[in-house]
Amino acid sequence: MRCLRERALVRIEVLDTGVGIPANQLGRIYDEFYQVGVAANTSRDGFGLGLSIVQRLVKLLNLRLDVRSEVGKGSAFSLELPSGVTQAAALCVVAEQRAAPGPRTDRSRVLLVEDDAAVREATRMLLKVEGYHVSAVSSLEEALQKVREEVGVDLLVTDYHLRKGEKGTEVIAALRASLGVSLKAVLITGDTSCAVKELPRDPHLRITSKPVQAEELLT
Q: Residues in domain Response regulatory (predicted)?
């Protein structure tokens, strides 16, 4: 990593000596769950969410992230920031305004239930960047405790397979019973079994397959 001053700008660069990125894949590196040279259905290190989150934050700040790469030699990512306290303060104001859109009438408060800590944190950040108020927990018990503590929930996002044999469908049913409303829910699953395919039709439930894209999750 290095930092260079260029006139009224500060250029931050992160360089690596990895395998590099082929030119025909540069356009995909900011996609959620995409990793260069790794198929979506194979074992992997990490989740392919880092650059996607960085790109969203960069857009919120009205900046631009550049990348240069050469196969076999590595990659260089660079970001230019205004220098000076006054400019930086003004930029923070712009970012705060952009990151806090007007109130959402039907889904401003999201409860996320995901037992994998890394996936939970990455998904929470994606939702937060989009302006949602997000509470994240790992189990049915924690979800019930959260709705008892907080004012309310507009949207539930839950994984299908949770730890200790819990299912996302159980979380949905329990929270609806606790709140006394047909809570809107998104069920995320990589399960293609009949148990998922034969779930009863529910106008307030959307089932999304893994790997899920942020736009699809937030639609």
A: 109-219
Q: Nearest Cα to 75, choosing from 140, 148, 23, 128? A: 23
Tally Cβ neighbours within 10 Å of residue 48: 19
Model pLDDT, residue 144: 95
Q: Domain of residue 116: give its range.
A: 109-218
Pair 130, 201 in one domain: yes
Does position 44 have pLDDT exceeding 50, yes or no?
A: no
Bridge partners for 65 per DSSP: 79
Burial level of 149, CB count in 10 A (0-12/13-18/19+)? exposed
Does the residue 104 lie in any domain? no
Confirm if 117 and 138 have CB atoms less than 8 A apart. Answer: yes
Residue identified by tokens 């995320």 is 188
Place of tokens 């439930």: 205
